[in-house]
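STRUCTURE:
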């Protein structure tokens, strides 16, 4: 039996990546699968995948969110993990999201149940700019003592060598995405009256504000707008050529809005998304929308697949955007090439995680 446990996220948080992860397991294993999470989160996963030969179970009471990156919650995670293992007796356990106390609890559980393979997924909490790098380094170093524990990362740069580990502890998995399609996208020169550049979620940052300001200073004859869909939208509403939408909207509406965008702005610098992944990038890939990016290493890694345009700084990126707005009716361009290679690598990594 394979158990997938989402101990932290509720409702729609991480629903797409977790649904994609679950779909990958169903694709690459014939074992019985149980997905366990908060009630509304489980409902969201089922809405995406249906039952899909998966047994869904609900956590009785959501895990603590208050001060989630402290060790005070370790006992709660430990009790939850032990109860699940004793009840279901899985051969493989995937813990889909883990702050420091959850990682520590998983390590203790690894001692008690050495016969169970445990894979713990690492998200953005390990990013250096968030200030907890030393703590995570100690936890990962401690994990070297447990042969039955490994980590799943969605970044090719979150490796053993980065954390100073001697043993193999990290699987790099291309970000799972439920709507991923293996095909080449040809972007036609679109005859729209207004060019739309999307800014979604955390992409609505201070760099995005600077980019919009610089683009607005260009003398453009073509109409354009920046469409902001984010809880940070309140900082953009007063700016010229910006339209802000409410953050809360359903999946179908989100997909429709993204498909109607000409570009997605992903203004992350060199040291952002160094150790984790951007779900917005995979929104762009799934919905065939080319990206406008700064020099994040994570986005640079995928540039060989022609995911869009990347610039070294805000000034260069603003110039690229101005040119694309002004000449959007030009010849067609090919984007997102050889994505089948990513799909194959994703499947291969999942099989390795199931067999190690």
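SEQUENCE:
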């Amino acid at each position: 039996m394979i158990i997938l446990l989402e101990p932290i996220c509720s409702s729609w948080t991480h629903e797409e990546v977790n649904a994609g992860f679950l779909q990958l397991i169903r694709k690459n294993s014939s074992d019985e699968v149980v997905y366990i999470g908060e009630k509304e989160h489980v409902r969201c996963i089922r809405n995406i995948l249906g039952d899909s030969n998966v047994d869904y179970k609900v956590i009785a009471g959501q895990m603590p969110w208050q001060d989630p990156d402290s060790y005070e919650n370790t006992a709660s995670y430990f009790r939850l993990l032990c109860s699940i293992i004793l009840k279901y007796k899985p051969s493989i356990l995937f813990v889909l999201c883990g702050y420091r106390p959850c990682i520590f609890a998983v390590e203790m559980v690894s001692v008690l149940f050495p016969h169970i393979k445990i894979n713990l997924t690492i998200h953005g909490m390990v990013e250096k700019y968030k200030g907890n790098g030393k703590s995570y380094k100690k936890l990962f170093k401690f994990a070297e003592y447990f042969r039955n524990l490994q980590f799943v990362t969605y970044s090719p740069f979150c490796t053993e060598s980065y954390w100073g580990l001697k043993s193999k502890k990290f699987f790099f998995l291309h970000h799972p995405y439920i709507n991923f399609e293996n095909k080449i996208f040809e972007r036609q020169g679109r005859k729209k009256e207004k060019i739309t550049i999307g800014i979604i979620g955390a992409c609505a940052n201070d760099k995005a504000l600077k980019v919009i300001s610089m683009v607005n200073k260009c003398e453009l004859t073509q109409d354009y707008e920046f469409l902001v869909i984010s809880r940070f939208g309140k900082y953009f509403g007063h700016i010229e050529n910006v339209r802000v939408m409410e953050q809360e909207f359903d999946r179908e509406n989100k997909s429709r809005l993204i498909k109607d965008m000409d570009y997605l702005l992903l203004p992350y610098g060199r040291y952002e998304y160094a150790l984790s992944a951007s779900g917005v990038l995979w929104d762009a890939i799934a919905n065939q929308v080319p990206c406008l990016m700064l020099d994040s290493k994570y986005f640079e890694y995928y540039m060989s697949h022609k995911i869009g345009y990347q610039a070294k700084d805000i000034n260069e990126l603003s110039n690229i955007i101005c040119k694309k707005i002004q000449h959007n009716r030009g010849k067609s361009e090919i984007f997102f090439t050889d994505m089948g290679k990513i799909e194959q690598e994703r499947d291969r990594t999942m099989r390795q995680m199931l067999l190690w």
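REMARK: The mean pLDDT is 89.
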